[in-house]
Write a structure and sequence with these properties.
This protein is of the alpha/beta class and about 190 residues long. Helices cover about 40% and strands about 20% of the residues.
Length: about 190
């Protein structure tokens, strides 16, 4: 039995991302402990104005998120692709929570920080309005590279799977149902 944290990174109150996150949670609850976070419902200052030069106190919602990340064995991030990358509010969550002392630790004399979130895995689910092949191979797949390599791996979280759904903008009900079914199957088969 895994402890799974599902993060809906779409700040909108209703979205395909939210539906995919809810469907994943519903299917995973049969075998696992599941917690869910909707980024749009979090209240916090989005910017890390002084970077790491000055400590910025975390709001209650961000403390809760850090506690849930510590608790989790497996993170499922469901994010839309906006302007080729992640929504600003989700990036703000990363900037404000994946901090030194939580996600990584600088070590004197070493150029690579210590990874503090080792032992966890992740799964990335993306929705986009461009064709998947176009985004991945022509536009460069920026959200995947940033999340997998620059954030998750940097912190010690191993990404095990990435799934793309799109284009959403012209999708039919049958497409969306197939995407929900695929998420259900992934969650139900998670070991």
């Amino acid at each position: 039995m895994k402890k799974i944290l599902i993060i809906n990174a779409n700040p909108k109150s209703t979205s395909l991302c939210r539906s995919l996150a809810e469907q994943y949670a519903l299917a995973a609850k049969n075998k696992h402990n599941v917690e869910k976070i909707n980024i749009g419902e979090l209240n916090f200052k989005i910017n890390l104005d002084e970077g790491y030069d000055r400590v910025t106190n975390l709001e209650a919602d961000l403390v809760d998120l850090q506690n849930k990340i510590r608790w989790a064995d497996h993170l499922v991030i469901v994010s839309p692709v906006w302007w080729g990358a992640m929504p600003a509010k989700f990036k703000g969550v990363i900037d404000r929570t994946f901090l030194p002392g939580f996600a990584f630790k600088y070590v004197k004399g070493k150029s690579i920080p210590e990874k503090l979130l080792k032992g966890r895995t992740s799964e990335l689910i993306f929705t986009l309005d461009t064709p998947v092949f176009w985004y991945k191979y022509i536009q460069g797949n920026a959200i995947h590279k940033q999340l997998k390599h620059c954030i998750l791996n940097f912190s010690g979280i191993k990404n095990t799977c990435s799934t793309y759904f799109g284009p959403v903008i012209n999708s039919k009900i049958d497409n969306r149902q197939a995407w929900l079914n695929k998420v259900t199957k992934r969650a139900a088969n998670l070991k």
